[in-house]
Design a protein that fits this description.
Layout: E1 7-8, E2 24-29, E3 34-40, H1 42-48, H2 52-62, E4 76-79, E5 93-99, E6 106-112, H3 114-121, E7 126-130, E8 137-142, E9 145-150, H4 159-170, E10 175-178, H5 181-184, E11 192-194, E12 198-200, H6 205-211, E13 214-220, H7 230-245, H8 250-256, H9 261-267, H10 289-295, E14 296-300, E15 310-314, E16 320-323, H11 325-331, H12 340-353, H13 357-372, H14 385-397, H15 401-405, H16 409-416, E17 426-427, E18 430-431, H17 441-449, H18 462-465, H19 475-494, H20 499-504, H21 509-519, H22 525-546, H23 561-564, H24 579-593, H25 603-608, H26 612-620
Parallel strand pairs: 2-7, 8-13
Antiparallel strand pairs: 1-3, 2-3, 4-5, 4-7, 5-6, 8-9, 10-13, 11-12, 14-15, 15-16, 17-18
The chain binds iron/sulfur cluster.
Length: 621
Amino acid sequence: MCVFNLVVLVSFNRAKIMRGWTGNFLNVNLTNRKWAVESFDLAFASKFLGGRGFAAKVLWDRLPVGTDAFSPHNLLIFAAGPLTGFVLPNSGKLVVASKSPLTGGYGDGNIGTWAAVYLRKAGYDAVIVEGKAVKPTVLHVKDKDVEFLDATDLWGLNSYETEARLHKLYGRTSGIVSIGQGGENLVKFACVVSQEGRAGGRPGMGAVMGSKNLKAIVIEGTGTIPAANPSKLRETGLAGYKEILGKPTYAFWKRQGTMSTVEWANENSVLPTLNYREGVFAGANKIGGYAEEAAKVSNRGCPNCNMTCGNVVKDAENRDSELDYENVAMLGSNLGIDDLSQVSVLNRVADEFGLDSISLGNVLGFAIEASQKGLVKEKISWANLGEAKALSEDIALRRGLGDLLAEGVRVASAKLGGSSTDWAMHVKGLEISAYDCHSAPAMALAYATSPIGAHHKDAWVVGWETQHDRFGYGEEKTAHVIEVQHNRGIFECLGVCRFPLVNLGFDRDWYTKYLHLATGHKFKWKTLNLISERVFNLMRAFWIREFSGSWDSRMDVPPKRWFTESLSKGNLKGAKLDRAKYDTMLQGYYGRRGWNVDGVPTKTTLERLGLSDVARQLDAS
Ligand code: SF4
């Protein structure tokens, strides 16, 4: 079992001096079925905070450069933050991270799951999995005990069936993350699933799990997460819930969650439509927030959350499907489907197979366009649920055209040729999420510089952009993208959901208070921002080290379609991005971040962030 410089192997007692953090990682090697507890100290915790920060640091320190993402040596990390699991708003988040098989760079995602809470109650801040089991395996963690269980009979089941079987064995008080057939078959955008609808790890973390023959992790934790001031933390946590309940937009959020974004995106010409050819969709209202309200049967959500934003509807096959904006836009307007019950089928199928619903919608849109343009022999049409569903299954099981599409749009377009690389909608290999950017330069920059490839969550600036110099490429935009990237990165490290702050205006001071009461240490928001910037640069360094020799600013450019094919519909008909202005904006972004013209952090920047060791390694690579 490898260790890194800040960590030494010690007993559980070491954790007693830590508060907020358990102080322990659980290292698991699937090849030899060995495991060990490893502790970290306060200096490490204060520098990287948790969640994504811990994952990025561990990957940087331990993963040999050039390791194949499906090699047993790749690491799969499940990391909580110092607020995860406490009774305070939306604290059920777990980051799942690895080197990505889809992009070749750093990959992660967060998932709301009871596994996060029980992991912390079991006495760990992270599980770090390496190696490969000789046969399908379930990892069972119960407090200090770890078991490796034969999962041969679960292999081939979808994520819902897997979790149901495991809950029968381990009861409802276990937290479970699992993969479906997508992960088993190494679909490059397979994700990790929990609780029938919670999913995380867009850049193929489910496929990495599959490559290790790891079908599921079951976690039971019966201990107490250590806090510096437990009673005050609980009291302040409950006060936070009360504050959220009183927010003016709370009732509307509970009704629609993120679904109201469908109508908003359509009104603002950013709703991805027909493989991002357009930003408006005639059927938007039929798949939007009010259509969802009319069809809704219940709400679901992550642990410790009173904002539960998973909108459950009955799909066209009379099964429950949990909707949010991203999956509805990608599997609805992007495929030309204007029937919410049909979109819901595709969404549920994605969750069952353990396929990322954003990438799936993107890949299906790409395939339909390829079919229409004669690049593939299969006939696939817009607005056709049956064909889209059948192709989703082919992708999960890697059959026929599905086998090629399972590689993601970057690889598929490289193989299909023609003009398809122009409308393969990805950045760095990760399929773009649900905002069209023909008319949104700052959002395009946010996608292009996201630390995992084109994902919206690190800098959702499009709402702000529609209110601020919509078509400009000025400095205000680069500054805002960076500010949002840092703010949001804090949540990826804390182990809590950002939605209370982002969507309801829950003040950020709550989080510094919680952190103080949990850890006993005062962190100003400014300090958290600096940590977030450090982690952002560390992820960047990981990419650059992996792509040493081929990395330059072209890695940070969105797809050609947005520069060359104007919107042909809606109020913003004629809009497209300007490449020269975009390049200038990108250089402005680099300059503001302290990166060179290729987008590489300078030695001065890395040293300012306390990453001198990273500067040395980048220099040498
Ligand atoms: S608001 Fe939604 S995503 Fe956030 S914790 Fe609650 S259910 Fe999960």
